[in-house]
Amino acid sequence: MRLTLHTDYALRALIYLGLRRGRRVSIREIAAAHRISENHLVKVVHNLGRGGFLETTRGKGGGLRLARAPEEIRIGDVVRFTEEDMALAACFQDPAQGGGCALIDACRLQSLLGEALGAFLAVLDRRTLADLLLSPNREAMAARLGLAPPEAASGPRPDATGTAQTGA
User: What is the pLDDT of residues 52-79, one digit of tens each?
Assistant: First the structure.
């Protein structure tokens, strides 16, 4: 499976906004930091705004910021929202739309691929944007994007497996 450029850019934009949390940023700023197409990013940002992942404000003092806390943005939700077609093979496509496979209902491939896709999404559902922003990755990502070191994360700390833990 390969994620589309749209999803890739969406995840990059969310990471950037997570690193710049508390301030508004421009599409131009994100595009320049990631060295990606500003025109394509405009479409991505518009879509993320429609999906409730970020807030967009036009005009002077406007810009982009996360609409929710990073802990509330599940990576699986972002992927499902930004990917138009999660069909891994022809057997997932609607025959009425010109797709499909002659072996439908006689082959186990659709079931196997459906299980694999479910496992893929289950892993992404266990992670949030906050997980992607944990130290020391946070500092390394900020440096690679040419940003000043971000403020120390005050959220959950990772355990030995990298999973965010809450409480003492």
Answer: 999 998 888 889 999 999 999 999 999 9
Question: Residue 151: which of 15, 12, 21 has the closest Cα?
Answer: 21
Choices 3.30.1490.100, 1.10.10.10, 3.40.50.720, 1.10.3730.10: CATH for 5-86+129-152: 1.10.10.10
Residue 133 in tokens: 């922003």
Q: Return d(Cα 96, Cα 58) in angstroms, integer.
A: 42
CB atoms within 10 A of CB 20: 22
Tokens of 87: 């069909």
Query: What pLDDT, in 10s, does the model give residues 46-56?
Result: 999 999 999 99
Per residue in 90-146, pLDDT tens?
A: 777 766 666 667 777 778 888 898 899 999 999 999 999 999 998 788 888 888 898
For 28-38, b/e burial (b = at least 16 CB within 10 A) is ebbbebbebee
Cβ neighbours for 47, distance < 8 A, ≥ 6 positions apart:
6, 10, 81, 82
Distance CA 7, CA 21 (A): 21
